[in-house]
Amino acid sequence: MNLSALRIGKILENYFKEHYNSEDKFVVKDIQSLAKGWQTELFAFTLNRESNNEKNIDHLILRMYPGKKLATSTKHEFEVLQILFESGYPVPKTYILELNEEVLGHPFIIMERILGEDMGEKFTQIIEQNDHEALSEEILPQFVRLFVQLHELNWKILANKTKYTEKESPYFFIDRSLNKLEKQILDYKITELLPLLNWLKENRNKASLEKAVIVHSDFHPHNIVLDGDGKGFVIDWPGAYIGDYREDLGWTLMLMEVYTSREVTDTFLKSYEKLSGKLLTEINYFIILSICYRLFEVTLTIRFGSEGLGFREEAVEQIKETAYHIRNLLVSLKEKIGLSIPETEKMLDELEHR
């Protein structure tokens, strides 16, 4: 069900009145569609609440999950955001979790809107201007501080989100990842990735646990909003889980390698090591693990459509528009472990000529 912004506004006005069981007057204004991700749609709006000659105005975000069977992801993100907010980590405050799809056609969250700018836009602008000073002294340190701060939180605040205990094998997390990847690859018959999976399994000894943390799973500048004072708030938490901190870093480094440059990636890595006080070991293994995940989700979405991973229908078109980054992944894979995946290269050729 696709609803117009105006229709969503009217539904929300009635919803707030019923949700708060109030005689107050609720007016939704200035509703606008924001950027759409692979799994969610975002709408910004203001909520005017009038009662006894008093008027409150809140700037809010409606985060809607239009994919299939995403109630669990919606609930998970809402709970993670609440726990992180209570811990003092900079995330938007959440107000409402609604799993009843009859309201808007999909489950949704309503949360605080951080009025400010997308750090990703600032990050991209600095790179395009080749401003090394601003990159190394301003934007990257702030980005890395938020990352390190996350990894320094006690993972046990999300203990109910994991089966992990400190008595587990030091290979608990990597075995979980490899078993999940293998099952998905075999279930969907994406067999061209089996050589990559086999390399990961053969080199499993490189992934002994160093430190369990809360993993964001998609930590990049576009998932950070800077408020009017320049403070950063981290958004987009449906994939959060407990894992090795290098799983989080591997994903971020993979994205940086294919979307920016080796110089930017190295600067980020050195900054993380300096601020965290940790010398990263075997990080290339986790970058390769992230490449495998990325190739799997992209191949699955292209081959089977958006429903394969619960993505929005428009996800396939977004993948087509950024297909070049998949080629960069293949180049990186070749450089790191000498592995080529001809079937994926052929898929990209066909995709670009459709």
How would you sum up this structure, described in words?
The protein is α+β, with helices and mostly antiparallel strands and 354 residues long. It folds into 2 domains: 5-113, Phosphorylase Kinase, domain 1 (2-Layer Sandwich); 117-352, Aminoglycoside phosphotransferase (APH), C-terminal lobe (Aminoglycoside 3'-phosphotransferase, Chain: A, domain 2, Alpha-Beta Complex). The chain is 49% helix and 17% strand. It is built from 12 helices and 10 strands. It has helices at residues 5-19, 71-87, 119-128, 132-152, 172-187, 194-202, 245-259, 262-276, 283-304, 315-321, 324-337, 342-352; strands at 25-33, 41-51, 54-64, 94-98, 108-112, 116-118, 212-215, 224-227, 232-234, 241-244. The strands form 3 sheets. The chain has a 5-stranded antiparallel beta sheet, sandwiched between helices. A hairpin with a 7-residue loop joins strand 1 (25-33) and strand 2 (41-51). Helix 9 runs antiparallel to helix 11 (324-337). It is globular, with a radius of gyration of 21 Å.
Unreliable runs, pLDDT <50, ≥5 residues?
Answer: none
Q: What's the count of strands?
A: 10
Q: Tell me the count of domains.
A: 2
Contiguous helical run count: 12
CATH topology of the largest domain: Aminoglycoside 3'-phosphotransferase, Chain: A, domain 2
Short description:
Helix content is 49%, strand content 17%.
Quick tags:
single chain; 354 residues; alpha+beta; Phosphorylase Kinase, domain 1; Aminoglycoside 3'-phosphotransferase, Chain: A, domain 2; 2 domains; five-stranded antiparallel sheet; three-stranded antiparallel sheet; 12 helices; 10 strands; 49% helix; globular
